[in-house]
Amino acid sequence: MTKPRVRFAPSPTGALHIGGVRTALYNYLFAKQQGGAFILRIEDTDQNRYVPGAEKYIIETLRWVGLIPDEGVDFDGAYGPYRQSDRKEIYQKYARELVTRGRAYYAFDTPEALEVRRAAEENFTYNHLTRGGLTNSLTLPAAEVQHRLDAGEPCVIRLLVEPGQAIRINDLIRGEVVFQSSELDDKVLLKADGMPTYHLANIVDDHLMAITHVIRGEEWLPSTAHHVLLYEGFGWQDTMPQFAHLPLILKPVGNGKLSKRDGAKFGIPVFPLEWKGATPEDSFSGFRDTGFLPEAVINFLALLGWHPGGEQEIFSLNELIAAFSIEHISKGGARFDYEKARWFNQKYIQAADNGVLATHIRPLAEAKGYRVSDAYLAQVAGLMKERVTFLPDFVEVGYYLFESVRVYDAEALHKKWNTGLSPVFEDLTDLVATFEPFNGVALEEAVKNFISAKGLKPGDVLPLLRLALAGTMKGPAIFDMAEALGQDETAERLRRFVAYAGKNAESAVNG
RNA sequence: GGCCCGUUCGUCUAGGGGUUAGGACGCAAGAUUUUCAUUCUUGUAACACGGGUUCGAUUCCCGUACGGGCUACCA
């Protein structure tokens, strides 16, 4: 069997939806597993919906999640150009060829005229029943058609759908699907502006680019019948690609497919990257800026509508490639489960190398004005990675590893502190300030000895020591923090704490 | 409305003519960690409904219901 060639063909009309990323992923996994090629084609045939920056966004997304195309816009390849607006003449040529072959025709009806017709007639469609009464090269004398064409009158080219035939599609996910041609409309192939519609461009390009498998969203299933007719019309049925229509991603709650609006509605990202639109309503946060690791997003998306069987949940990209199969893709829509996405991220952060985490944390730390070494960042990563869900948590939840304690947990302080502890903590501060060697293990032993020498229990002192260092009862092991903070800082925090607790204890007693 | 697709725990799913219907997330309880989190253990919870076919259907077939998609000179 020849190597498969698949394409991801998004339209640059705005930020790439997370469902689009999943489509790209499945295409990529299939291609890589079979040793084939993954191609990025930009489908910008609608000039009205073109959004500047969208193409760049798509490419940046693919790079971020690591789905690097073998060919495509920005990636070279021998079948280019890969941007449909750069292929305009090609489509015109093929559209005319179809007319010549008697499989398509010119239609001069204006959009406005058709609009009027639709308003007057319920369920009006341009098809074998109505085309005889409309203005096209099927109804007009040949001479007039030529005259109109020569005069440059605006017109479109429509697919001539012959009624009475059953069109069978063998979908790799759904099995055989049958459509009756009598129910199909004469789709526009070439628009009046000279640009092709999706239907024409997609068939011509898939053929010219030697695409073997079309893996796309379920919303394309109904028009696949037209696509088959197009392959036949061109005489390309022998090399027609195989189809696989993916189930949709549904809203977290309620009915319908996941939409960009759901991001704001549920406070969750539905886009891979941040998107800055013209207005706040058209701007969205993404998985990346929320603090997801790309590997976690891939793992989450892969399992949203597909599972190889077995009980494994965590898959690296290479494992996904090895395990992937189109047959195991679910048929039903998959609800977007953000809790699961969070869980994946947490797992990936936990499993990540401290040094790698440090590189992710650095920009976040710098944004807050923290100036620290890579080694320290790696240390923080090690201390916090089992306590965070998102990357920013390192500098937000664990802020006290970068700057002084902002606030002491009042409840814990009142519960544990008493004025009799003041001299104890002053002595403890001295111990910490002078103890050698200053490392977590040795310090822990020394402090525990100190506690018992004072006739106290660990529970009398340790929680307060934690408060002194972090201000909160949550967090990494006390002596690990002390070691990370260093001797001077640890002692300093103890001094500040003793001063604060002293005042606080008085007010607590009085009030 | 018409055409097409779908339906296993709350969610993502495995499975497949006879199973204690498995796993994961979530939730709950317990253990460990003198914090929190992690980790571990246990628990919770599902075959949409009605007819067939069959010795036997969650699994196969047909309906119904519900959900979804498409029905543009958008993709």
Explain what this protein looks like in three dimensions.
There is one protein chain. The protein has 511 residues and is mainly α. A three-stranded parallel sheet has the order 1-2-3. Strands 4-5-8 form a three-stranded antiparallel sheet. A hairpin with a 3-residue loop joins strand 6 and strand 7. It is elongated, with a radius of gyration of 32 Å. The model has no long low-confidence stretch (mean pLDDT 94). It binds one RNA strand of 75 nucleotides through helix 4, strand 7, strand 8, helix 6 and strand 12.
| Order of the strands making up the biggest sheet | 1-2-3
CATH topology of the largest domain: Rossmann fold
Structural class, judged by helices and strands? mainly alpha
How many domains, in number, for the residues? Answer: 4
At the first level of CATH, the class of the largest domain is Alpha Beta
Q: What sort of overall outline do the alpha carbons produce when their principal axes are compared?
A: elongated
The total of beta strands comes to: 12
Question: How much helix is in the residues?
Answer: 40-55%
Q: What low-confidence regions span 5 or more consecutive residues with pLDDT below 50?
A: none
Q: Can you give the mean pLDDT? A: 94
Largest sheet: 3 strands, parallel
Secondary-structure arrangement, i.e. CATH architecture of the largest domain: 3-Layer(aba) Sandwich
CA-to-CA gap between the ends? 83 Å
CATH superfamily of the largest domain: HUPs
Number of helices: 21
Q: What proportion strand?
A: 5-15%
Radius of gyration: 32 Å
